Amino acid sequence: MPDEHRFEEKLISQEAEKRISETLDGVEKIEIDVQTDLLKIFQGQADGVSVAGLGLVIQEGVRVQEIKLQTDSIAINPFSALFGQIQLNEPVNTIARIILTEVDINHALASDFVRTQMQNLELNVDGKIVSFEPQQIQVFLPGAGKIECKGKVLLKEMGNTRPFAYTAIALPRTHSQPTLLESFHCTEGGGISIELVTAFMLKAKELMNTPSFKWKEMEFNIKDIKVEIGSLILLVETQMKQIPSSSDILSP
User: Fold this and answer.
1) Most CB within 10 Å of its CB: which of 12, 85, 134, 225?
2) In the predicted model, what is the mean pLDDT of residues 152-175?
3) Is the pLDDT of residue 184 over 70?
């Protein structure tokens, strides 16, 4: 009987791999294991789903070096599951380990997809709203738990627009320490007020300390961040209301 169940799992898992691969712009390797059997499928149940992937290109310019993901037991649509399409009947909790390389991060930051998410950001400077638009961002991962960032933004205040460039070194929050800002230097944009620099630093801290964020039908909770030379390792808990389709992945 276990061999029969494993045969059913393999058929569904292989079809799921094919469908997920079709939603991506590119993938080096992906393995999906749907832990279930035929009886559970007809009952709309699965013990869980595990995913292991290498070189996943979500869309042009956005690439993940490695991901390992495991879900809890899930309630699924039995008819779609038979064809390898996992449609959730109830939200499911997952835990994932994601590795991003320095090269992939910088390619993503320069992509149109990310740029559209970073438009019309705002700073609160002594009660006044100053908008800014990132122009260039480059991240370096030298190790020792540090993230170095060099960037250039356009500041828009009181009807005027001017460039502002900076370099910063930070240590992201982990399960044992809060976010720490080691240094921050203005490299372009004379006459920047202390209040503006302070507001900019507070905004950076706010973004780095954001415990969770939502995208489509998923809510992500970053539990831990580890910085190694040339790579960033994230431990993420996710509540997924539905597995995104190809149209969801490709839309902003």
Assistant:
1) 12
2) 83
3) yes
Going by C-alpha positions, the residue among 163, 167, 207, 212 that lies closest to residue 187 is: 167
CATH T-level assignment (fold) for domain 108-209:
Nuclear Transport Factor 2; Chain: A, (3.10.450)
Rounded distance between C-alpha atoms, residue 79 and residue 192, angstroms: 61
Domain residue ranges of the chain, discontinuous segments joined by +? 2-101+212-250, 108-209
Read off the pLDDT band of 46 (50, 70, 90): confident
Distance CA 21, CA 209 (A): 33
Is pLDDT of 231 > 90? yes
Dihedral angle, C-alpha 223, 224, 225, 226, nearest 10 °:
-160
Residue 38 has pLDDT above 70, yes or no: yes
φ, ψ of residue 115 in degrees (nearest 5): -60, -40
